[in-house]
Amino acid sequence: MSAASQTPLRGRMIDIGGRALHMVCAGPADGRPVVVFEAGAFGLSADWGAVQARLAARGVRSCAYDRAGLGQSDPGPRPRDGLAVASDFEKMLAASGEPGPYIFVGHSMAGLYGRLFAGRNPDKVAGLVLVDAATPEAADLPRARQFISSFGAASRVAGWGASAGLFKPVAPWMGDRIGLPPEAAVDKRRAFASGRHNRWSAHEVAQWLPASNQAAALPPYDPDWPVAVVTAGPSAGREAWKTFQTAPARASSRPYVANVDAAGHATLLGEAFADEIVKAVLFVRDAAAVKS
Question: Contact 24/59 with Cβ under 8 angstroms?
Fold first, then answer.
C-alpha cells in the first residue's frame, strides 16, 4: 500500500472555485459526444477504468471523476446530498473544457444523480446509460427503504473501520471487487483503505433518501432522449426492483434494456463484463446521432 500511494496521479485536478475535483479522461479529444461517468456509493473514477479503456479503443472520449472527499478530490460542504453532488458535477464539467452535450453514465446510487443532472441541464444531455442503477421512485419500495437504512448503518461502520486503519491489511485482496485494469485497481485499493474516502462516502449514503426526493421533484427524462439500462444478476425474486430500474428506458422513444445474469452489482463494471456497458453506450451514441 505504501508503494501504491506513491504512484503518479492519473488524470488531473479541476478547480471548481477554491477546491478541486479529480478527473480522469480517456480517448481521442474529438471522440464526440463525450461520455461522463458517475460512480455509485463508495465509488470513484477508478471504477470505470475497464469501461473507459474499451471505449477509448473504439474512438470514444470519456471522463470519470472522484466526488468531493472521495479518492483524490478535496472535500466539499455538507450535507452531501444530491444537489451538492450535481452542483459540483456541473462546475467541474464547465471548468474542464470537455464540451457537451454529454452521454451520462451512472452506476447504482448515481442513478439519482443522473436524474438531477438531466433535470437541471436538459440542454447538456445527449442520452443516458443507467448501470444497475437506483431510481428515485424505487425508494418508495419498503424493501428498498430497509436496504437504504441498513446500508447507511454499514457505511458509518466502514468509515470508522477505515479511519482506524483496519482496511489497510486486506486492501490488496479485497480492495478491488470490480476486476479492474492494473492502474485503476491501484486507485481503487487505495480508496478502499482510506479513512477519508470511506467517511465522505458514508456522508453521501446518509443522504440517499433526501437525494431521492430531490431527484423525484424534477421532471422525468425527456422521452426523446435515448436511454439504455443495463442490470446485473438474475431477475427471479427481484422483479419489482428490476421494473423500477428499467422504467427510464421503457419510457424512452429509443430504449435499450439488457440484463447480465452472470454479473454482480460490482463486477458488471469490470473487465469481465465491461463490453456490456460499452454496447449500451454505443447504442445511445448512435441513436443520438441519428436523431440529430
Answer: no
CB 276 within 8 A of CB 230: yes
CA distance 280 to 258: 8
Distance CA 51, CA 66 (A): 16
CA distance 48 to 91: 21
Where are the domains positioned within the chain? 2-291
How far the first Cα of the chain sits from its last, in Å, is: 48
List own/partner pairs for 156-159 with CB under 8 A and 24 or more apart. 156/202, 156/206, 158/42, 158/198, 158/201, 158/202, 159/195, 159/198, 159/199, 159/201, 159/202
Query: Is the model's pTM score more than 0.85?
Result: yes
Alpha-carbon dihedral of residues 106, 109, 113, 114, nearest 10 degrees?
40
Phi, psi angle pair for 2, to nearest 5° = -65, -45
The residue type found at 244 is F
2-291 has which CATH code? 3.40.50.1820
Cell representation of residue 291: 436523431
Residue 15 is which amino acid?
A: D
Q: Using CA atoms, how far apart are residues 270 and 138, in angstroms rounded to an integer? A: 25
Spatial distance between the Cα atoms of 77 and 86, rounded to a whole number of angstroms: 13
Give residue 187's pLDDT: 98
What are the angstrom distances between the C-alpha of 264 and each of 52, 55, 144, 213? 19, 21, 18, 27
Please give the Cα distance from 62 to 79 (Å, whole number). Answer: 28
Q: What is the distance, to the nearest Å, from the Cα of residue 1 to the centroid of all Cα atoms in its chain?
A: 25
Q: How far apart are CA 111 and CA 71, in angstroms?
A: 20
Amino acid residing at 37: F
Residues of the chain predicted below pLDDT 50 = 1-5
